[in-house]
Amino acid sequence: MTDIKVLMETALPLPSFIKGKVRDTYLLGDKLLIVASDRISAFDVILPSGISGKGRVLNRISSFWFEKIAHIIPNHVIELVENTSCLDKYLTSAERFKYPEYLIGRSMVVKKVNRVSVECVVRGYIAGSAWSEYKKLGTVNGVSMPKGLQQSQELPKPIFTPTTKGDGEHDRPMSIAELEGMVGKDLADKLARKSLELYKFGREYARNRGIIIADTKFEFGLDGTELILIDEALTPDSSRFWDEKTYKVGEAQDSYDKQPVRDYLETISWNKEPPGPVLPDEVIKSTTRRYEYAYERITGLKLG
């Protein structure tokens, strides 16, 4: 099992900026240090079992994509932490400390910007909550869709379906009018345009490597007045990855993500409320393999 420090609390002697389900973000001088832990959540509950190496996969695959898509939009990355000594330059001598080795490969130094409070979801295939809505209403995010679509079918063209979340709430779908009311028409148009450009580039790149990116989400921030990409990019946590070889229209697809975890949790008596159950070793190992396989297929690199 993953080191408990990485799994539950990265516990660095730095001011905490935000603690997410997977990532812990710290103030590092006037920058931020984002650490991707091995924590995993399901049904909005952080589980007591970690997925070994998951944080490193998420961090490295995001870093890979941030480089690949930099021609479309700038991003918040300053540097990937490949050795802990690189962090010294962001702190005064009085503030420095001995950095834990687990930071290597699973953390990055980024710009501190103003986050746009919208999750920019792009769907190229109809699956998940979009499929559920379509079956009931014939719409996705309240927008009418062509009749006769099947589960997991590729859409005529990718669609932008933004969501937001409030304190203590699940993601809430937003209409384009609501988005414009929140951030203004110019920024709403740019969020939609850039999200679609990023998805289309990533989809084509991954497809050439035998992976279908069915949908994904992006987050953005404002660096002064400049819109930049933040958080993560095209990872198994933020996207639905399918194997092109086994893809079949009309049924649910096997995904390169935490699907073994979800599948296991559906077989046991758990009310999907905290605390979550401990995962069996085989479920952890199977999920680890999926994350590593997605990284290797897309990047062409071994996870060293």
Sheet of most strands: 6 strands, antiparallel
**CATH homologous superfamily classification of the largest domain:** ATP-grasp fold, B domain
What's the helical proportion of residues?
Answer: 25-40%
Q: In DSSP terms, counting alpha (H) and pi (I) runs of 4 or more, how many helices?
A: 7
Shape estimate: globular
How would you state the average pLDDT, rounded?
A: 92
What is the total number of structural domains?
2
CATH class of the largest domain: Alpha Beta
CATH-derived architecture of the largest domain: 2-Layer Sandwich
- Our Rg estimate from Cα atoms comes to 19 Å
Q: Catalogue the unreliable spans.
A: 1-7
Q: Count every beta strand, where a strand is a DSSP E run of 2 or more residues.
A: 17
Distance between the termini: 19 Å
Q: How large a portion of the residues is in β-strands, by DSSP E?
A: 15-25%
**SSE string:** HEEEEEHEEEEHEEEEEHHEEEHH
Derived from helix and strand composition plus strand pairing, the structural class reads alpha+beta
CATH topology grouping of the largest domain: D-amino Acid Aminotransferase, Chain A, domain 1
Please tell me about this protein's structure.
- Mean pLDDT is about 90; it is low at about 1-5.
- The chain is built from seven helices and 17 strands.
- Helices cover about 30% and strands about 25% of the residues.
- It has two domains: about 5-110, Phosphorylase Kinase, domain 1 (2-Layer Sandwich), CATH 3.30.200; about 115-260, D-amino Acid Aminotransferase, Chain A, domain 1.
- With about 300 residues, the protein is of the alpha+beta class.
- A hairpin with a 2-residue loop joins strand 10 (about 140) and strand 11.
